[in-house]
Amino acid sequence: MNHQPCSPGQPCFFPGTALLLTDGTVMAQDNGGSNWYRLMPDNTGSYVNGTWSQAASLPAGYGPLYFASAVLPDGRLIIEGGEYNFDVPSTVTTQGAIYDPIANSWTSVARLLQGGCCISDASSVVLADGRFMLANSDTSQEAILDPATLTWTPTGTRARQTSTMRRVGLYYPISRF
Questions:
Q1: For residue 144, what are the CA distances in angstroms to 15, 26, 151?
Q2: Which pTM does this prediction carry?
Q3: Which CATH superfamily is domain 15-157 in?
Q4: Contact at 8 Å (CB) between 28 and 70?
């Protein structure tokens, strides 16, 4: 792994999932691993001339390729589940983590599915009140995470196993493709 500073505007890793944080920086995963990088735009706001730097790595044993993710209203980044943990074929995980950009640290999130199989690359959404909703892509389970306490509340199960999340509060259904 290259731990040297990256060239302006050029990542020194193989970028996978990338998300724009509320502070204007971009977080990008080193594809299929536990390392993450941040792109800071230059003083004119240019990402092309911005600077990449390594951010904190995910908790030990967690390096998914495909996963649910979202930026929460308070600026933290959450990822849940995933496939191909550390690029191992046919692996799925129930792990999850939340990134604090101020502390530059990841915290494991309690397992959503006690005794369950996997979360995979599930549908997810940030609700209008700031909570994070996740629908298991392999079962009919759904749950909502309280980002303040990092605890899950099951919403029950969908009437049929689809990838469409049902209406909750001020949120309207979306579909995976």
A1: 29, 25, 8
A2: 0.82
A3: Kelch-type beta propeller (2.120.10.80)
A4: no
Domain range list for the chain: 15-157
The answer to whether the beta carbons of residues 141 and 87 sit under 8 Å apart is no
The amino acid present at 27, given as its one-letter code, is M
Triad 69, 42, 27: Cα angle to 5°? 15
- Per-residue pLDDT tens digits of the chain, which is 177 residues long: 444 566 666 788 888 899 999 999 999 999 889 999 999 999 999 998 899 999 999 999 999 988 999 999 999 999 998 888 888 887 888 889 999 999 999 999 987 655 556 677 788 899 999 999 988 776 777 889 999 999 988 887 665 444 444 444 444 444 443
